[in-house]
Amino acid sequence: MDIEKQQIQEELLLIKMDDIEKQLNNNYEIDNSNPNWDSNSDSDWGPEEQCTLYSIMDIDSSILTKPPNFSTKSLTIRIKSKPFAHGAERSAYYMKTSTGEKWVFKEFKERIHNHTNEPVIISAHVSAIGIYFAKEFCSKWKNKKLKVTKAHYIEIPGRKILKYFNVENLLKGKFERFINNSGYINQELNALSPQSFAHFSWQFSEKKIMITDLQGIVKSKKYILTDSALHSVDKAFGATDYGDEGIEAFFKTHYCSKICKDLKLEFHPKQPGGG
Fold this sequence. Notes:
By secondary structure, this protein is α+β, with helices and mostly antiparallel strands.
């Protein structure tokens, strides 16, 4: 092993040890105050950085079976120094571009995953499949009240080790989780459309894939979903893909609504009351 590769391996080990310590001590500071988007103060934002934005092209049925194709674009960005939220796997930061665009920048809690582009490509691919499912769901349902936002990824070449991250356009509104990826359904919200959407994706994909972990905002009675996950029979979509077990976990708590029945969605054997 040459000296540069050895140095990278040593730095990655130190990063991994630091992340483990943070998780053990739950030492994740957040700043959930509204950012001053117009400020360029170093106390508000990190340094200016150059990056390449990768966006998936041609979202159609081929996205289910083929690797995605990406377009590229150069951006100048600044990122808040502290995250405004933490998920199970990633931390979310506000990010802005030199042209005034507002984004969300996502870093894995186990930051070693930001060393290669494979995890961020998977996340972008998952979002593209979600977009395709949503278009088909709305078409079959004859209703346009649900959409999935696109996840992109960026490469920051000025960073030596950790340089691949997912980014999404910032959503404005009250953020809610409607279902998670392990069977939980937020019954208080009575969000029937996201549940039926998950059920639809399973049947539409010939029982091979299910969209899950549905979260986002409701705007003008329209569900705008982001950062979803997929369960697949071959567990092809990263650490949050629980395969058949994840699919069954959803159906164990899912009661079909009028939407499911109107779409003639098939009952799953694990559904309570036969659906």
